[in-house]
Design goal:
This protein is of the alpha+beta class and 317 residues long. Helix content is 43%, strand content 17%. The protein has two domains: 112 residues, Phosphorylase Kinase, domain 1, CATH 3.30.200; 193 residues, Aminoglycoside 3'-phosphotransferase, Chain: A, domain 2 (Alpha-Beta Complex).
Length: 317
């Protein structure tokens, strides 16, 4: 259950009677028999939107709701991304409940068959995550970006349009750093001097970007909670795909919390990691730091990421 101001428990929007009725109807149609929501596990701490798992007769369902005016559009992009990664990289993604989206008033709820997870990851799970990420990166393209559709990084719009004839540094600067910088400035959560320092870095990214990479398919938000670990190996969720530098995903893997070296060992079993990656890890994290500040998720939480952003900027002066 979420916690509101003053530590008072806050009920998940998924537990509203009208939302439960929509979920039960969608799952019943999917199964062609009656299905009812049972025990609920709140997963709001693992998602940028209210999310959780409903246990029910013979099937558990993952539900995520978005009550904004473009909630359906965000979920359409997420499902399109899952389909792209599943079809192109042949990795496991959750099975959709019907079309995967049911309408609410307002917003929408995304519904997937829940994948049973281990209570605690073992070494084999971390290795599988690394190998799965590398399998995604095996998919190549001719240019950076994605012409098929734009996406969302968490709740924030993500422009995937290619920079025609541009290098990776051009795409990263124009499509990732500068849009997130504008959003963070507009949020009021980014101090002016830090914004100036980000602008200065944006003008010099080519100096720090390393060898020009071949465009590879990215998960797009490859932090560790966006992989599920079960008996069949790693499954992929919450994607924001486009073609870019594989080091972006590698930098996100331990963005929120450390991961064992086993995950990177698993990756190296499929693809190499350039020796210069550790020196570029914080460069690739700059848009994610700005995104956290733009969303403004909690004062102390945000201050911690502001400190990390400032430290990253100091590395590339």
């Amino acid at each position: 259950m979420n916690v509101g101001r003053g530590g008072v428990p806050k009920m998940s929007p998924l537990l509203q009677p009208t939302t439960i009725a929509v979920i039960e109807r969608a799952v019943s149609d999917h199964l062609s028999r009656a299905w009812t929501c049972g025990r609920f596990t709140d997963l709001a701490d693992r998602s940028s939107h209210p999310a959780g798992i409903f246990e029910g007769p013979s099937l558990s369902v993952f539900a995520k709701t978005n009550l904004s005016s473009d909630g359906r559009r965000q979920f359409i992009a997420e499902l399109a991304g899952l389909r792209l990664i599943r079809e192109r990289a042949q990795v496991t993604t959750p099975v959709l409940i019907g079309p995967g989206i049911a309408d609410l008033k307002p917003g929408a709820v995304m519904l997937l068959e829940a994948i049973p997870e281990r209570a605690a990851r073992c070494a084999a799970d971390w290795r599988s995550i690394g190998r799965t990420l590398a399998a995604i990166h095996m998919v190549r393209a001719e240019q950076f970006g994605l012409e098929l559709f734009d996406g969302f990084f968490g709740p924030l719009p993500q422009d995937n349009k290619p920079v025609i004839g541009g290098s990776w540094a051009d795409f990263f600067t124009q499509r990732r750093v500068l849009p997130r910088l504008r959003g963070a400035v507009d949020s009021g959560n980014l101090p002016r001097q830090v914004a100036v320092d980000v602008e200065r870095l944006a003008a010099r990214i080519r100096l720090f970007a390393g060898p020009e990479p071949e465009p590879r398919l990215l998960h797009g938000d490859a932090q560790q909670n966006n992989f599920l670990s079960g008996s069949a190996g790693a499954a992929v969720i919450d994607v924001a795909p486009y073609f870019g530098h594989p080091e972006i995903d590698l930098a996100m893997l331990d963005f929120f919390a450390p991961v064992p070296d086993t995950a990177f060992h698993g990756y190296r079993e499929v693809l190499p990691i350039d020796p210069g990656f550790p020196g570029r890890r914080e460069l690739w994290r700059v848009p994610a730091y700005l995104a956290v500040l733009e969303v403004g998720v909690g004062r102390e939480f945000g201050r911690g990421f502001l400190r990390r952003l400032v430290a990253a900027l100091d590395l590339y002066r």
